[in-house]
Structures are given as structure tokens and as C-alpha cells.
């Protein structure tokens, strides 16, 4: 038989386990209380009968057996809660409130007392005989007579029984309340778990938009829900990235391949008609193919970075060192083109990233600057730490710049502004830089360069901003 | 030079074979990793060109098996996987160079010839000599016809690489990879400018130019 769902939940099982442990502890506690109280009652009774015995023995020693006899008769008639029996040395009764002694010790020596538990028979006032538990002490007096003093302990016992019953009751109450509480908590927890399970099931069935509800209690369920939601967000982004990458590659390669095919076809027709130069056509086709391959590599790199969400193999390094490396690589080219090349690198900075990707990003920025800055202009490569702690690589040129309204657009793939179409390039350079920035949790900022100076300017300043290295 | 080509794309292998044979090399072909492994075990080769992804046994496993047997023949990996990680993995497995598909044939042949040369420089050299050019790797000095040539550190590295591969074509990509250690493709002629600076330092004022431009391929340092 399967248990109802609620009884199979972890919190409920934990509740049961807890209750079992509690019951064991409560039993031990009860046993201790019982022993302590019951023992205490016996001990007190023993003390009382001993005191009574001592006072009677003292009376005997002072005034002899008759005085004790007298005293016994008086005491038995009073409200004292004791049982008395005075016997001759042979054990036959002289006087007292009971018929015979429950303690057999005919041979006991003078002054030696013997204790015992026994029961006295009494009627309960309705003619029925009841046995009461009792404690007694018996001693041989110096004249040979035997004195017995006892006490009914049924009242003490009843007290102990009452305590025990109260404890059992409390125990039962705890179990019932614990069980109820456990059920309540289990229901609450399993409702939360059920909500999470529903989300997981929905996602498993392909609904990637499902999200777990965050109740705002800031407990571990909220934490788990937030974690699951974040994971799903990331998964969704990544899947969208992959899908986007596939679409993009297909789209981005179609146009250059179409162009290549058209050229080859034209060349083929020309050569067939005896008009064109086959060698030249082939060289052109090879060049075009290289162009397609470059585009392909760039698109793939961008798509992979976007799909991965994060650049692989990140390490801590000094950004100035990287910038210096690239400055060294590009400086001669600038000089050759009649561009002034400046560099400003802040010292002792640390950045976390993929060195190769960042190098490529900077190379793309420098490529652009070299391509678009006319001879006589200047290019500046800077590395600095922003007041926010972010690390900023920037390339500033004195070229024509990018109008404000086009700045967001040039980062998109294949966007080339009208006046740049004559320059070689795929239109993917800045897109790759932006993808690299994003893959490092950073961003790309385009702004105006140093402004218009004569024929020059206003220039462009492109900043690659990376988060502070944690 | 004896070259083992291990490539499952038969057409690509055929093209490689033809090109390398025309360049004066002897080629043996194998079409999967297992065949490649037995071919490599059976014969002596100067260089192996190994495709990474092949049926039966992939290129990385094949090269690892060879390296375990102590075979140190230089290996050039060919791969469609061009990510940095893939490259690092290939080199860790015992590859000596890594070329991403598709490649230009001049690039392949330049790299293959560069690898064969690598093997000969087993002992640690402190002095390189190519024709009139002398490079002291300890003192970091360069002389041509006894005249000292002052080079920047990077120019020195560039010349060292060219001297180690004297008489062979080296491509721009090879220079960027081996001298600057970058694996991207600059859109401007940065490498050409560096080479032409080096050329002006080692060739200017001498009767003969040693640093040659190889059309469609790259550069070559002639003795």
C-alpha cells in the first residue's frame, strides 16, 4: 500500500524521526522522575517511622514497658498516621493497632531494627477489603519486648502515580502536537517543493519560459528558486545564442558566397567566350574565398563568444603589458602611414580575461584606427583604471569619427558606414570587440575623439571597459 | 623529405600529396588513425601531417600513442577546430604545430618545412650563421660581413626565427604566431611593416638583399 503523498515527504519523515527521538528522551525522563519521587516518598516515610520508633524507645527506656503501652494506646487513638504493635519477647501481642507483625525476626538482638515493606488490609468504608502498601520498622527493646511501628504509604504512592500520569499525558500531548506541527510544516514544504517540481517538469517538457515563484521570504526555497531561475535564464540565453549563431552564420555567409559564385560564373562565361583572362579570374576567386573564410572565422568567433556567454580560460594579467605588446606591433605601421602613435599605460593594474581574445579586440581597434585616420593624424592607445575600479583600454584617433546617431549601429555586424566602404574589411571588427567585451562582463563605449582640428577630426574614441578584477 | 599524410578526406590528401611531391618531397598516405599509426611505426618520416578528426582513431590519440613509443617525429595537426583550447590540446598531445582548416597550401608547405628543420636543431645553439649573417644568441648581437647591426628586441626575435628557417618560406601568420605568439589575423599590414624594417637594417648598404618577399606566401631569408 502506498502512503499518501504527504506522509512520504522528507519533512514528515523528519518529524517522525524527531518524535521518536523525543519519545525516547521523554521515557528516560519519566523513569527518572518516577524513581526520584517514589524513592523520596519511601525515604520520608522511613524517616517518620524511625523518629516515632525513637521516641517510643526513649519512653520505654525512661519509664518501662507500661509507659510505652500507655503511650501506644494513646497514640493509636490519636490522629497519628502510624501503625503500632507491642509484643512480648515471645512475639505474642501486648497491644497495638494491628494484630500481628508483618516482620519475622524473633531472633533479632536488642537495639537492632529491621525495616520492611508490606501491605495492610483495610476496608474502604463500603465493606470491601483493600490492600494498602506500607513501610514498617521493628526493634527488640532492652527488656526483650518487641516494638513495631509502621505507616501506610498509599497516599504517597498515589501522589507518585498522579505525577506519572501527568507526565504520560504531557508526553502524549507532545506527540500529538508534534505530529500535527510536522504535518503542517511538511505540507508547507511540500507545497514549495511541488511548485519547484512543476517548474522542472515544465522545462523538461520544453517550456523554457517557466520560472519558479520567489515568495520574498528570503529562505532557502527562495534561494533555490532564484538559483533555478538564474540557471534557466542563462540556459535560455545560451540557447538563443546558439540559435542566433546558426542563423547568423547562414545569413552572414550567404551574401559573400553569392558574390563569389556570381564572379566565378561571370569569369567562366567570359573565359568561355574568349574574353577574359582565366588566371586573373582564378586569382580573384581565390581572394574572394579568403575573404569568405575570414568572414566565416570572425562570425564564428563572435557567435561562439555570444553563445558561451563568458570568454574561456580567463586569467589575471597586467593590461599595460598587453597594450605595450600591441603598441609594439602597430607602431611601425602607424609610422609608415605618417600617423603619430602615442601610448599611455597606467602601472600596476590587474585585469581578468582571456589574453588572446583581448589582444585580438585591441588589434581590431588599432586596425580600424590605422585604416580610417588619414596621414598626418594621430592614434593614442591608453590603459587606465576608472574611478569605479573598471579597467579601460581605449583607442583614440583623429579620423573622421562616427556621427552620434551611427555609433550604436556600427557595432552591429556588417554595418559599414558609407564613406568607409572603399576600405577593406568585413564590417565585423567592432562586433567582435563588442562580443569580447561582453564575454568579459564588460562593454564597449564609442565617443567623439579630440575634436576638429583643421582638416582633421573630430575623431573617434573607442573604449573597451572591463570589470575590476575581483 | 619523407612526409606521412594521415587524412580521411581523400581529396584533401590527394591535393596535399600532389603539392608536396611537386615541392620535391616523398609522401605516404594513410586514411585513418590506425593506418596512420602502423605506417608511422613501419617507416621513417621527417614530418607527419595528421588530421585531428578521423574515423577509427583520432589524430590526437594516434600521436599520443606514437609519443608513448618514443617516436619524436615532428607532427603538424590539421583541424577544423580552431579555438585556442583545441590548439592547446593538440600541442599538449604531442603536436608540434597546428593549422586550422581551411588553409592556404603555401601555409601548409611553409609549416611542414619549418617543422623538418626543427628536428635538426637538437643541441642548444648559441651562434646562428646564415651566409654573411651571424647571430650571437648569448650576447644578443648580429653582424653582417663583420659589421654590427643594431636591432630592437622584437626585430632580433624576428631575425632569429628567419635564420632558423633560412631558405624556407615563412608566412605572415607563422611570424605572428611564432614571434608575437598571437593567433589572430590582423587586417592591416603590421607584419609586413616589421619585416621591411628588419630588411632595411640587415640589407641596406650591402650589395645583395638576403630577406626576400615570396609572392603570395610571405618571406624567405636566403644565405
Q: What report would you give on this structure?
A:
The complex is a heterodimer of chains A (470) and B (223). Chain A has 3 domains: 5-160, Beta-Lactamase (2-Layer Sandwich), CATH 3.30.450; 220-308, no CATH class; 315-466, Heat Shock Protein 90 (2-Layer Sandwich). The radius of gyration of chain A is 52 Å and the shape is rod-shaped. In chain A, strand 1 and strand 2 (93-96) form a beta hairpin. Chain A has a 5-stranded antiparallel beta sheet. In chain A, strands 7-9-10-12-11 form a 5-stranded mixed beta sheet, covered by helices on one side. The two termini of chain A are 56 Å apart. Chain A has helices at 10-77, 154-204, 220-272, 278-308, 319-336, 355-372, 407-410, 429-439, and strands at 82-87, 93-96, 113-123, 129-140, 146-152, 315-317, 340-345, 351-353, 378-385, 391-397, 443-448, 460-466. Chain A is of the alpha+beta class. The longest helix of chain A is centred in the first third of the chain and has 68 residues, at 10-77. By secondary structure, chain B is of the alpha/beta class. Chain B has 8 helices and 12 strands. In chain B, helix 6 crosses helix 7 (172-180). The model of chain B has no long low-confidence stretch (mean pLDDT 89). The chains are: A alpha+beta (470), B alpha/beta (223).
DSSP helix fraction of chain A = 40-55%
The biggest beta sheet of chain B reads:
5 strands, parallel
Identify the CATH homologous superfamily of the largest domain in chain B: Response regulator
The third-level CATH topology of the largest domain in chain B is: Rossmann fold
Total domain modules of chain B: 2
Uncertain ranges of chain A: none
Beta-strand share of residues of chain A = 15-25%
CATH topology of the largest domain in chain A: Beta-Lactamase
The average pLDDT of chain A is: 83
Tell me the radius of gyration of chain B.
18 Å
Residue runs with pLDDT of under 50 for 5 or more positions of chain B = none
Amino acid at each position: 500500500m502506498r502512503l499518501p503523498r504527504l506522509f512520504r515527504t522528507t519533512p514528515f519523515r523528519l518529524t517522525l524521526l524527531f518524535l521518536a527521538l523525543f519519545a525516547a528522551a521523554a521515557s528516560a525522563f519519566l523513569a527518572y522522575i518516577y524513581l526520584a519521587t517514589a524513592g523520596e516518598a519511601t525515604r520520608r516515610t522511613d524517616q517518620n517511622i524511625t523518629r516515632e520508633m525513637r521516641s517510643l524507645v526513649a519512653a520505654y527506656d525512661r519509664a518501662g514497658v507500661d509507659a510505652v503501652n500507655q503511650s501506644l494506646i494513646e497514640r493509636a487513638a490519636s490522629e497519628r498516621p502510624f501503625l503500632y504493635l507491642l509484643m512480648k519477647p515471645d512475639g505474642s501481642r501486648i497491644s497495638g493497632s494491628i494484630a500481628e507483625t508483618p516482620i519475622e525476626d524473633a531472633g533479632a538482638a536488642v537495639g537492632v531494627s529491621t525495616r520492611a515493606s508490606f501491605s495492610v488490609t483495610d476496608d474502604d468504608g463500603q465493606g470491601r477489603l483493600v490492600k494498602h502498601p506500607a513501610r514498617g520498622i521493628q526493634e527488640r527493646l532492652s527488656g526483650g519486648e518487641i516494638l513495631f511501628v509502621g505507616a501506610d504509604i498509599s497516599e504517597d504512592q498515589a501522589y507518585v502515580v498522579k505525577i506519572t500520569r501527568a507526565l504520560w499525558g504531557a508526553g502524549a500531548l507532545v506527540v500529538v502536537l508534534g505530529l500535527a506541527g510536522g504535518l503542517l510544516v511538511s505540507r508547507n514544504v511540500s507545497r514549495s517543493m511541488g511548485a519547484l517540481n512543476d517548474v522542472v517538469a515544465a522545462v523538461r517538457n520544453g517550456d523554457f519560459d517557466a520560472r519558479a515563484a520567489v515568495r520574498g521570504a528570503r529562505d532557502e526555497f527562495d534561494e533555490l528558486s532564484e538559483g533555478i531561475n538564474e540557471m534557466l535564464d542563462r540556459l535560455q540565453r545560451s540557447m538563443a545564442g546558439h540559435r542566433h549563431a546558426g542563423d547568423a552564420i547562414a545569413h552572414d555567409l550567404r551574401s559573400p558566397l553569392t558574390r563569389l559564385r556570381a564572379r566565378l560564373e561571370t569569369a567562366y562565361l567570359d573565359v568561355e567566350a574568349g574574353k577574359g583572362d582565366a588566371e586573373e579570374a582564378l586569382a580573384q576567386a581565390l581572394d574572394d574565398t579568403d575573404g569568405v573564410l575570414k568572414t566565416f572565422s570572425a562570425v564564428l568567433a563572435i557567435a561562439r563568444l555570444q553563445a558561451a556567454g563568458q570568454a574561456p580560460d580567463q586569467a589575471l594579467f597586467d593590461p599595460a603589458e598587453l597594450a605595450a605588446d600591441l603598441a609594439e606591433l602597430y607602431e611601425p605601421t602607424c609610422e609608415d602611414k605618417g600617423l603619430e602613435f602615442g601610448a599611455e599605460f597606467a602601472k600596476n593594474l590587474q585585469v581578468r580575461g582571456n589574453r588572446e581574445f583581448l589582444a585580438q579586440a585591441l588589434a581590431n581597434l588599432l586596425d580600424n584606427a590605422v585604416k580610417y585616420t588619414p596621414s598626418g593624424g594621430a592614434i593614442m592607445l591608453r590603459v587606465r583604471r576608472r574611478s569605479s575600479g573598471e579597467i579601460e583600454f581605449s583607442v583614440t584617433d583623429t579620423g573622421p569619427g562616427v556621427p552620434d546617431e551611427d555609433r550604436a549601429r556600427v557595432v552591429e555586424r556588417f554595418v559599414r558606414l558609407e564613406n568607409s566602404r572603399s576600405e577593406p574589411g568585413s564590417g565585423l571588427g567592432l562586433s567582435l570587440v563588442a562580443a569580447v567585451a561582453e564575454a568579459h562582463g564588460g562593454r564597449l563605449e564609442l565617443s567623439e575623439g579630440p575634436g576638429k582640428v583643421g582638416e582633421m577630426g573630430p575623431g573617434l574614441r573607442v573604449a573597451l571597459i572591463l570589470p575590476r578584477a575581483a | 623529405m619523407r612526409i606521412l599524410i594521415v587524412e580521411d578526406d581523400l581529396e584533401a590528401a590527394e591535393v596535399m600529396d600532389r603539392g608536396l611531391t611537386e615541392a620535391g618531397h616523398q609522401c605516404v598516405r594513410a586514411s585513418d588513425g590506425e593506418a596512420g599509426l602502423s605506417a608511422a611505426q613501419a617507416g621513417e618520416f621527417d614530418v607527419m601531417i595528421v588530421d585531428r578528426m578521423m574515423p577509427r582513431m583520432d589524430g590526437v590519440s594516434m600521436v599520443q600513442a606514437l609519443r608513448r613509443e618514443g617516436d619524436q617525429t615532428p607532427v603538424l595537426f590539421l583541424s577544423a577546430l580552431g579555438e585556442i583550447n583545441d590548439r592547446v590540446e593538440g600541442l599538449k598531445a604531442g603536436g608540434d604545430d597546428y593549422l586550422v582548416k581551411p588553409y592556404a597550401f603555401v601555409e601548409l608547405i611553409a609549416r611542414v618545412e619549418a617543422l623538418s628543420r626543427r628536428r635538426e636543431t637538437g643541441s642548444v645553439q648559441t651562434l646562428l650563421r646564415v651566409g654573411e649573417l651571424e647571430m650571437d644568441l648569448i650576447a644578443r648581437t648580429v653582424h653582417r660581413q663583420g659589421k654590427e647591426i643594431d636591432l630592437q628586441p622584437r626585430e632580433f626575435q624576428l631575425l632569429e626565427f628567419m635564420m632558423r628557417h633560412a631558405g624556407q618560406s615563412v608566412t605572415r601568420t607563422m611570424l605572428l604566431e611564432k614571434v608575437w605568439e598571437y593567433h589572430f589575423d590582423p587586417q592591416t599590414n603590421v607584419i609586413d611593416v616589421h619585416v621591411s624594417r628588419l630588411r632595411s637594417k640587415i640589407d641596406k648598404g650591402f650589395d645583395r638583399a638576403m630577406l626576400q618577399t615570396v609572392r603570395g606566401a610571405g618571406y624567405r631569408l636566403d644565405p
